[in-house]
Amino acid sequence: MEVNISEQGKWERIVEVTVPYEELVPKFEEAYTKYKKSIQLEGFRKGKVPLSLIKRVFGTKIETEVAEDSISEFLEKAVEDNKIKLYDLSKLESVDFKRESGLKFKAVVKIQPEIDVEKYKNLKVEKEIYQVTDADINEAIENLREQHATMVNIDGEAQRGNYIVADIQKTDWSGVPLIGQKFENRYLQLGNDETDNEFVEQLIGVKAGDSRRITLRAPNHQAGENVPNEEEEHYLVEVKEIKAKSLPEIDDEFARDLGDYENLDSFKEAIRKNLEKQFEENTKIILSNRLMDETIKNNPIELPEYMIDNYLKAFIEKVKTDSKEQLDEQELRQKYRADAIWNLKWSMIKEKISDLESIEVEDQEVSDYIEELAKRAGKNATLVRSNYRDKNNREKVKRKIEENKIIDLLINSAEIIEKTTTYRDRMEEKKIIV
Fold first, then answer.
1. In order of start, what are the domains of the chain with their CATH numbers?
2. Fewest CB atoms within 10 Å of the CB: 140, 175, 194, 296?
């Protein structure tokens, strides 16, 4: 096979290939054997037509078909032998097959850029070391109290923070009920000091069994001015119950109700360890992202526009498949273009580092990873194992393990500056940024 490659612009190559007839003969013989089983000619039973007759009658047609069907195979070999990273076929400009000269074709191909990745070790990044504070533990306990709160009926007037159960009937300005506008057994929380909802504010002070008329004015009305009836909404609220949230006491009994804890102190210690584990996992994710960002920044890559377009096209098709809403494709392209560029660059850099460092993933590593996922899935373990029998899903796991190895390599070689912080410090920083 003879190959000639020339440049056409920055991101395209013209690949001219000549395959001598002799190299195609094994493919032709295989095709003749296949066709012999199905060809019928007058005077011969199916499958009994002599091969010499088949070649004489159908030879040119069969060989031309086989030669043209082999183009992708020879093109792939041509670009691979010449170390061209094929991205896509733009077009076939000419195809010619003759027994005397063999198969000739000329293809225009799009290429994936060749990149050099040199600066990926000894990167300088900051890493937060989170300290779990008593305030963090108390906040976690308060969240658990909220989750295990009960609702109790109360007598007397409804106050801020209470809940009411009521039937709500929409009426006209004179109080006549509007048909089809009644909402029964609605749960409403009365506003606290941080909220100011005009509807629930007018229910402060009601008692069980009370009826109260509520008027909502147009949002843009000025205080003290008369508002036309058509710009008002009117409701009749019939209060059935007034409830308050009852939180469990924070004591040893509360701890034992939530798990196998001896007392409140052992419960708090378990919360501390859980928070430390969460923070540690979160810290590694943040550190990994910073190292990936630094690696991309230190190894500039120019991407052809068609790679970005294809990535966005595939992404948008997936979003459209997953969403039932009408989507603005142009808006999605603009919104996620930067993410597309980042992901493409990291994917190329990751592949290059894997080659440079000879990173490999064994089948056993994939199986162990899947088994760990199955253990975490509990009752769904069988389903997890079943899903990962799929070849594509196992390949995704393999790529994930490979990426984890690359991230570990970046971390182990990086110059990491540790900064002690707390969760509350982090939240305050976010507030300042916002």
1. 2-111 (3.30.70.1050), 150-246 (3.10.50.40), 262-433 (1.10.3120.10)
2. 194
